[in-house]
Design brief:
By secondary structure, this protein is α/β, with parallel strands linked by helices. The protein contains ten helices and ten strands.
Length: about 350
Amino acid sequence: MGKDIAILAIESSCDETSAAVVVNGREVKSNIISSQINIHRRFGGVVPEIASRKHIENIDAVVDAALSEAKMGLSEVDAIAVTYGPGLVGALLVGVSYAKALAFGCGLPLIPVHHIEGHIAANYIEHKELEPPFICLVVSGGHTNVVKINSYSDFEIMGHTRDDAAGEAYDKVARALNLPYPGGPKIDKLSAEGDAEAIKFPHVMLEEGSFDFSFSGLKSAVLNYLNKCAMTGQEVNPADVAASFQKAVIDVLCAKAIAACQTTGIKKLALAGGVSANSALRAELKRVCEAEGVELFIPSPVFCTDNGAMIGSAAYYEYIKGNVAGMDLNAVPGLKLGERRY
């Protein structure tokens, strides 16, 4: 395009307040993240009202820090981007309201970004060579999808979860094992001490040819196992439970992702979402991709969790297509992947 495009991006969909400055969708000048994990840990999960209040308290400082680290002023920014869905409505509204005020006050374009499209775009930051088409396995607390990325703005959902997302199942099993919030990383760590073959939990593949997921039955199987052990006085090895549960999840995730590559003939697979930081998932996906001749793209852990940089990356491709929102932009907590509501 000639001129470099610098975007100030804001992310506040759940419990991380983040802002970043990203140039041309792939060069991160700054990426500031203020996490609320320690605040919500005492409640065993994210409390939406508390999350919203903390975003209000943190957002000014986070944006200032992002600009400072990038050594830029608002006058050097070409656009303001913000996550407008999906997510917690109160949390989203903090970011959307702040971004609208900045855009209006500075006379800058306002770029609305889908949170999951941001997670997918995180791969562009570290893998400069990655371009569509490719398959993306999206795994987070609220979403589990196999997506065919036809272009930077064309997302074809091949499979989705019919009940619990993988990250949601992780959190519920972690609570049953009395592991502290956030449960996913705790299960991943505990699993390293256990035997993944110790307990045969179900690998739910659904009907032949389907790329959909279902983790509710697996979650129930783990809870039933724990209840049965409690009733019969059988000793529970938490590490074995964690490892066996994690294997059941990861085996299905990898099988569906590879099947999508085989069906489409696309030999490029990207991983995205908060659960993509899981060490066992990353290792197994690498193993199966090497065996199947599929090129694998995985972001560093810092770009797997919610962050402003991924929003800035996705926003660039919206910006060059002219997808700009007005001052009537609102939060859309149930926004679907590929949907535009502004």
